[in-house]
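The data are passed on as follows:
___
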Amino acid sequence: MERKLERKTVRRISLSLYSLGVIFLITGLLLNAVVLPVQADWDGSQLQFSGSCSGNCEVVQATVCNIGASAMQGSTTFQVLFKDAGSARTGVVIFSGSVPPLGVQGCTTLSFNPTTIGNPPGGTYPLGNYIFRAQQRPDYPGTDVNVFSEQCRPFKDQGECQLPTPTPVTPTPEDTPEPSPTPVTPTPEDTPE
């Protein structure tokens, strides 16, 4: 009788362990089927420009602020775009720089000197429209990862600023072909009599 009791106990334990294993297997399959969002490493900062850009012959600038709930954990990049007429958002990038880490509600002035552009874009440069564009910090959850300042046109007259002379492209020695020797044909005066 004791043996029967032992067998029933072993059988119940085995059945319980088997049932528990099946439950774990089903739970694992269900958890694997559910896609959980990946946690981002965004630092909680959010950049926003304050007003328009402005400038003169030596500097074009705009102010950007961190209006996010947390300080920036590192720097990010900004560009200055230029277009002769129309929206500078679709213009040419003429300068790139770095936005330093900003604390909560911290601001900084981004600037560049338009006369340092060695090969300015064609058209009426520097007479045209400028805009600053800054990138949010990595993993920013919003849809606008680029933020723009308001557009400005700091120059009123084409001759207002002295621009550098465009830098000519000089060929390197590898680009210059070696001259080939030219055969000399004797003339009647060169031949001995």
